[in-house]
Specification:
With about 180 residues, this protein is of the alpha+beta class. Helix content is about 15%, strand content about 35%. The chain binds dinuclear copper ion (CUA).
């Protein structure tokens, strides 16, 4: 079988690119440990309440230790359930003291949603059947918008909440405005 000179060059170029890209991918996945946010933890999307973390009273912000918080969220079209405040109103804003470590745990009851706290490193895909989790340290004060960045239907643009990183550590953690 005879290959034209240029065809050979392009075949080598294509093959070498493939090997290079696979090597980069392998390096990221196996050496750097880059993996999907779900960490493989699974959950029944039709019965997320079976997991204690996603029962209504455990949703939203919970202080677990000094400077340590957990935020449990149930996403569904087209809303992030962050629990209810003392008056029974849905929480749409959480306040986290600056410098604290926060573990976000998010599940979806229906379709794929996004979970992005714009301006921070928090950016996850939330897939039915998986618990997406990510631990971050929030060191920048300010108001950040939590939003859905995976198109999920007609109300996609209405899926948002507010995360405020505050200086004052004594602030009320369930403060809802
Ligand atoms: Cu949920 Cu877009």
């Amino acid at each position: 079988m005879h290959f034209h000179k240029y065809e050979k060059i392009w075949l080598i170029f294509g093959g070498a690119s493939l090997v290079l890209f696979l090597a980069i991918l392998g390096f990221g996945a196996f050496y750097l440990g880059t993996h999907p946010q779900s960490h493989g933890a699974i959950i029944d999307p039709e019965n997320v309440e079976a997991n204690e973390a996603f029962q209504k009273e455990n949703l939203g912000l919970t202080k677990v230790d000094e400077d340590k918080y957990i935020v449990n969220v149930v996403a569904s079209a087209f809303h992030y359930d962050l629990g209810n405040d003392d008056n029974g109103n849905a929480v749409s804003r959480i306040e986290i003291p600056k410098g604290s470590t926060v573990l976000f745990q998010v599940v979806t009851k229906d379709v794929v949603h996004g979970f992005n706290v714009a301006g921070t490193n928090v950016n996850m895909m939330v897939e039915p059947g998986y618990i997406s989790s990510m631990e971050v340290q929030l060191n920048k004060t300010g108001e950040f918008t939590l939003l859905c960045n995976e198109y999920c239907g007609v109300g996609h643009h209405m899926m948002f909440a507010t995360v405020e990183v505050v200086d004052d550590e004594s602030s009320n953690e369930t403060a809802a405005k």
